[in-house]
Task: structure prediction
Amino acid sequence: MSQVLPVDAIQGMDKFFKMHLINSLSGIKSPCLIGTKSHRGINNLALFNSVIHLGAAPPLMGFMLRPLTVPRHTYHNILAHRHFTINHVTEEIYRKAHQTSANYPEQVSEFEACELTPHFSDQIIAPYVAESPLKIGLQLEETHAIQANGNTFVVGRIIEVIYPDQVVDDNGHIDLSELSAMGVCGLEDYYTLEKKERLPYARP
Amino acid sequence: MSQVLPVDAIQGMDKFFKMHLINSLSGIKSPCLIGTKSHRGINNLALFNSVIHLGAAPPLMGFMLRPLTVPRHTYHNILAHRHFTINHVTEEIYRKAHQTSANYPEQVSEFEACELTPHFSDQIIAPYVAESPLKIGLQLEETHAIQANGNTFVVGRIIEVIYPDQVVDDNGHIDLSELSAMGVCGLEDYYTLEKKERLPYARP
Result:
């Protein structure tokens, strides 16, 4: 049996049912830890599942931030230093990564609270996550205010990529199974990934 | 051994290696078929892997379109009718879904070319994909021009959701394994998903 929910039925649903359902509608995502440094020098970590690819030339990625009606440490820190890191979440660290989504006060570093280790390169002032095998360092490029709900879409330019040799093939493809990368649906449901098939570039 | 690629090394890489690597850096995504109707009434389908959740109140989703330096049927059709559909891709249809990414001329419907079936509701003028078990109907809300590379970020408001009863639990969570939903990394690598664990809302 299929459910057909028009918008009025959606609006009238139980608050938590609606939140979980709508959060799940975009399907599988990469949970990513975004690392930043505060204006006071605190190393901040936060979990996002809206990181997307924007283009290869120039190399750009973006992610969505919730409304600025409360302080968003990640946002303020990116504006302060214009650098942030994206760190992929593996089977080894997904429980610690999930714990970073708790509401810690500004003076607490999620690295310490969640037992993850900051790692620094000379290219990026923001901290990487040492335990994450695939790390990307970015510089703020632009932000967009989403009128409909007050979100902010943040665009960054990739300035450094760190990855283990054995997960990238000769053509540049990353093997997510080899990486033990996790997927997430909504805010709570974690999935493991198994490589199924590479399909060739499609032609009519 | 880890590779550390600073931006200069990235810029100097082989074009295809760079494209595959950068495309893969955002990790696992949901391949989604976006359905639209052209101003001439052709039912259009295109594959996107940048669909993200924006918020539950109002219920919003967004996706990224490549630069408008060539005609983008999906974009023009959304502007023409202000409606589009997002249809999830399962193990049963991912090869057909991938084939919609071929460069068909405007007068050809990808539904016919790729042997998928249009399905209509009275809420949305754009076609759904009958073979997709999880379908979302949206109305155009706003667009954002990404200055850095000429992409367009499209925001839609959810006005209808269609799903099979058995994949949504009492709390509104969608089970992607039960749905046989596929994941994709980059443009070519397809993954199957296995539910691992639901983690509770995190508290300090």
